[in-house]
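Single Protein Entry

Contents — chain, fold
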Amino acid sequence: MKAAFIETTGDPSAIHYGDLPQPTPQSGEVLVRVGSVAVNPIDLYIRAGMVPMTLPKPFVVGCDLAGTVEKIPEATGNLRSRFAVGDRVWGSNQGLLGRQGTFAEYAAVAEEWLYPTPEGVDDKTAAAVALVGITAHLGLFRDARLQAGEIVYVNGGTGGVGSMVVQMAKAVGARVITTVGSADKAKLCQQWGADCVLNYKTDDIPARVREFARGQGVNVWYETQREPDFLRTVDLMAQRGRIIVMAGRQAQPLFPVGPFYVKGLSLHGFAMFNATSTEQRRCAEDINRWLKSGQLKPLIGRVFPMSQAAAAHQLLEENTLGKAGTLHGKIVLTP
């Protein structure tokens, strides 16, 4: 089979595209014929060696996938598959913690990390929603316990995770404040239902947030930036508000301990790949319902053939680490 893989960590040029043996699914796994995959920042960090993990050699890059069940091993004992050959599935959490990745024509994936693709949802959409959708859901609902009517603030409303936060928060009846850097991005957030869309280049963000919140503050602050400004965040929070952080591995920002505890705030940090399969499946159930109803629509910025995986990594790296501003939305690849 064709695959995008690395022999050693390095820059995007370390990614090779060529032939590897087709994987054989073991008990508890299914073989998926891959239809689409998506590129995430964690993929860059693992490929570059910035996040040390045990990697098979050669290592197929990539976390997300969507495709069709091609083969299921014979059941062992009382074990029976949740899927049948021909079922369409999507999932994430591959290429992590010793597991092989997804940028290949076929992937052997443990069933616990796979979910049925809703009817009417194509593979590109399912792959694009995978890691970012689960990440957004974990922060909003497992950790922040978001309720209808509460105010959510998220930086970067058209980013991978940010766009999911906006749409999921609206799906449960929350009020959403988000930031963007252009009029076109503002229109997208408004289409998704964001109640207050601010331009971080031109607007006085604290003043506008206070105006919208009418002095009551933000209930859930979903921080997607690598260098959070906790002085500003804590000042704008409501009593007993919840702050979510999930980016910025090297960040060491100032933290206003006094105002934080006086307001009774809580701070939740997490890495999506540390969530259990049960926790992630709960996320997937909501994601599937919202995909089917049209309440969740991932933004796809670019589509590449799998053979151009290195170029896709380069583009995301330029925008994630280099802040080039030449991409909004997910990068998706197809075999």
